[in-house]
Amino acid sequence: MSRRRRIYEGKAKILFEGPEPGTVVQYFKDDATAFNNQKHDVITGKGVLNNRISEYLMLKLAEIGIPTHFMKRLNMREQLVREVDIIPLEVVVRNVAAGSLVKRLGLEHGQALPRSIVEFYYKKDELGDPLVSEDHITALGWATAQELDELITYAVRVNDFLTGLFMGVGLKLIDFKLEFGRFWEEEDMRILLADEISPDNCRLWDLKTNEILDKDRFRQDMGGVAEAYQEVAQRLGILPEISNGQMTEGESAEEDKTPTEETQDKA
User: Mean pLDDT in the chain?
Assistant: First the structure.
């Protein structure tokens, strides 16, 4: 297997140098983290499930004109994506009161919001990813006013589409987090949806029972994390191809290995 240079390792993914300039290989790990990495575990098969779920959702969003960094899935754990300069913001869309919104504003957990709310958080783990205003963002140069307008427009469109898609398979989209990046083609710059969309960064509840089918099961020590992610994949119609990280339908064992890399980066 060819050696590839590791560019970055996050909590749930590793980025490797891509085969062509302007591309990156995104590898999905089985690691689960919460509370700014204070809680950590390994959930067997989670990376495989998130890879397929994110691929499915990114392709669906591309069909309605949302520009994304996704190019193609390479194997069970890897995607080829466009290399982007990540905007240091987490864009969170909330439809129902849950998580930090309940704690900050004293709302009732599960309370439907009068309308969807878009929030911005500064991507800085050591600061706890603080909530920031549009004035903070433009004054400190993290994004321009025009870029913010684009982010909000895309976030609202993604919310409208995913709300309907998940409702169609019996799931309620409570809230979710998006990340965006700047993609350069010669002298032209475009904003692309980046990172992933999966139960790791979406809250998803069963439409009838409100059963939690996302990473809150890990945060709250509820157990059944892999089973919940499998349930989401099954409802989306992609589970026949995957089962708890086990290969089916002709996938090779070699594809499920962590990619090799240079043992030491030269100074």
Answer: 90
From residue 230, alpha-carbon distances to 42, 99, 157 in Å are: 16, 23, 26
How many whole angstroms separate alpha carbon 163 and alpha carbon 219? 23
Whether residue 144 is predicted with pLDDT greater than 60 in this model: the reply is: yes
- If one compares 107 and 38, the residue with the highest pLDDT of the two is 107
3-state SS, one letter per residue, for the chain: CCCECEEEECCCEEEEECCCCCEEEEEECCEEEECCCCEEEECCCHHHHHHHHHHHHHHHHHHCCCCECEEEECCCCEEEEECCEECCEEEEEEEECCCHHHHHHCCCCCCEEEEEEEEEEECCHHHCCCEECHHHHHHCCCCCHHHHHHHHHHHHHHHHHHHHHHHCCCEEEEEEEEEEEEEEECCEEEEEEECCCCCCCEEEEECCCCCECCCHHHHCCCCCHHHHHHHHHHHHCCHHHEECCEECCCCCHHHHCCCCECCCCCC
Domain 85-206: give its CATH code.
3.30.470.20
Every domain of the chain and the residues it spans: 6-84+225-254, 85-206
Residue 21 confidence (pLDDT) above 70: yes
147-198 pLDDT per residue, tens: 999 999 999 999 999 999 999 999 999 999 999 999 998 889 999 999 999 9
For the whole model, what pTM was predicted? 0.89
Superfamily of domain 6-84+225-254: Phosphorylase Kinase; domain 1 (3.30.200.20)
